[in-house]
Amino acid sequence: MVKPERKVVDPVLGDGFGEALRECWTAGGKAGRSYATIERDDGFLFITDVAEYFDDFDKLERHEQWAVKRARGRVLDIGCGAGRHAIALADLGADVVGIDPSPGAVDVSRERGVHALMGTVKEQGSDLGKFDCMLLLGYNLGLLESRQESVEILSSLARKAEVGTRLFGNSMDPALNTYPDHVRYREENHRQGRMPGAYHLRIRHKNLTTDWFDYLYLSAKELAELVVDTGWEITEIETEGQSYAVELTLTRAGAVRAG
Ligand SMILES: C[S@@+](CC[C@H](N)C(=O)[O-])C[C@H]1O[C@@H](n2cnc3c(N)ncnc32)[C@H](O)[C@@H]1O
């Protein structure tokens, strides 16, 4: 008997991360209810329980708590996800606007009481006004993408800010991770002329996947080199193991590249 041919179906392009957040939120935001798979372009997979994106202030990593406690006033939370930092900051009296390109993330944030809008780190939306602080937390310094893009993005954020505006972000020093698959990946990046922590990823949930995107892990030293000529300066650093948070302050609006 001829066996019927089995058809392998590729994942469908869509809001993989947002749908995982939506599923978790619908199930009460608790652990063990919804997972996202982060797929790297070398085939390496990370599986994450998205309940962590619903953590309250007390459960945030210590260096993120440090950043939340330092932010004040009108705050733009870039890539707000399900709004955990926005909610923590609002509880401390800040006036927060969250932006995110994921419809699922924006819906969930709104349902949780966050003033959330569609937007990206490159296209924040024109009518948002001025902010005292900006956030790239939840490892969202990764949204700086690459050496070249990070300079463009930081310069563009500087043009929307005023001298004294602060930007809080966090990342992980990729060189401190000695897991062999990550070491190999960094070495290949080096061979290709990329920064060591320049990852190419997509996020999957069930049969959905986001498009592939660039994501940057970088040390505080690498960040300090990238911010030269963008108008931002690292004014504080808080380290926690392989992770760290920074406070960047816009010190030289006049020096910002035109773009
Ligand atoms: C790792 S999650 C962090 C979410 C949130 N900051 C937190 O820590 O809970 C990254 C978030 O960035 C959003 N994102 C992806 N690309 C983006 C971009 N280009 N600009 C802004 N946000 C982006 C994703 O939709 C996702 O919600």
Question: What's the SSE blueprint?
Answer:
Elements: E1 12-13, H1 16-26, E2 35-40, E3 45-49, H2 62-70, E4 74-78, H3 84-91, E5 95-100, H4 103-111, E6 115-118, E7 133-136, H5 147-159, E8 166-172, H6 180-191, E9 198-205, E10 208-209, E11 213-216, H7 220-227, E12 232-240, E13 243-250
Parallel strand pairs: 1-10, 4-5, 4-7, 5-6, 7-8
Antiparallel strand pairs: 2-3, 2-9, 8-13, 9-10, 9-11, 12-13
The chain binds S-adenosylmethionine (SAM).
Residues 17, 53, 78-82, 84-85, 100-102, 105, 120-121, 137-140, 143 line the site of S-adenosylmethionine.
What are its keywords?
alpha/beta; 7-stranded mixed beta sheet; 6-stranded mixed beta sheet; 7 helices; binds S-adenosylmethionine
Provide a descriptive summary of the structure in words.
There is one protein chain. This protein has 259 residues and is α/β, with parallel strands linked by helices. Helix content is 27%, strand content 27%. It contains 7 helices and 13 strands. It has helices at residues 16-26, 62-70, 84-91, 103-111, 147-159, 180-191, 220-227; strands spanning 12-13, 35-40, 45-49, 74-78, 95-100, 115-118, 133-136, 166-172, 198-205, 208-209, 213-216, 232-240, 243-250. It is globular, with a radius of gyration of 19 Å. Bound molecules: S-adenosylmethionine.
